[in-house]
Write a structure and sequence with these properties.
The radius of gyration is 21 Å and the shape is globular. The protein is 75% helix and 0% strand. The protein is an all-alpha fold. The protein has one domain.
Amino acid sequence: MSVLAPEERRTAADRPSDLAMWFSDGWTITKRNLIKLKRSPDMLVFAVLQPIMFVLLFSQIYGGSIQVEGSDYTQYLMAGIFAQTVIFGSTFSGSAMAQDLKDGIIDRFRTLPMSPSAVLVGRTNSDLVLNTLSVTIMMGTGFLVGWRINTSLSSALAGVGLLLLFSYAFSWVMALLGMSVKSPEVINNASFMILFPLTFISIAFVQSQNLPGPLETFANWNPVSALVQAVRELFGNTGTVPTPDVWPMQNALLTVLIGAALMLVVFVPLCVRKFASISSR
């Protein structure tokens, strides 16, 4: 006669798998972050207004002053605005993690029977939702100022998917930074020191051949430039603009996929290890 408790007699098939529990925990934290965002409408409003402002600012104010060889500036510009906005949107992971650490939310999570990595997954997933909203709004604003998609629907969806993939991978970089700084106030300055060179020393807004020698080299090998070039190609906005004769620009899509994969392979484990370290203090 078995003396095992009922829960011990259950077969492995009856027990929830670790993977299912992990997805459940991640989804719970994602919902928590989205509800928090809903309850902070000012953050949502500014996240929506920023891409609109950038599209109007660059297309309507600077568009008449900046000439691009082989393309209309609005068509050239939009991929750069898309890339800049989703990368800047990834900073929410860093600032939110820093704020949760300051508020003691991480200590509360530690007491719950949940996967530690679910906190990080939920945080980066909510950034992905916010960036999806931003890209949708930017595309609508772009259509209003004359931007058009000149390829198929599948190519356009691939372009959107590439933007979101890169932004999701970059969210893990920002999450690690957010867990490494001493206070939430530091994260904005620290992130801008990374984001401004990456976005502005690139082909997002100007052609790299118009930059001084060292900056041209940096722009041509900048992963953000590869993202912008790949998105332009997928949206059909390249016109007859010459592509820089360097490997990342000639193989922009492959460069972005490799870069996103490397960021995930490197920074996901680093984030999980850092989170475990700060949770055990």
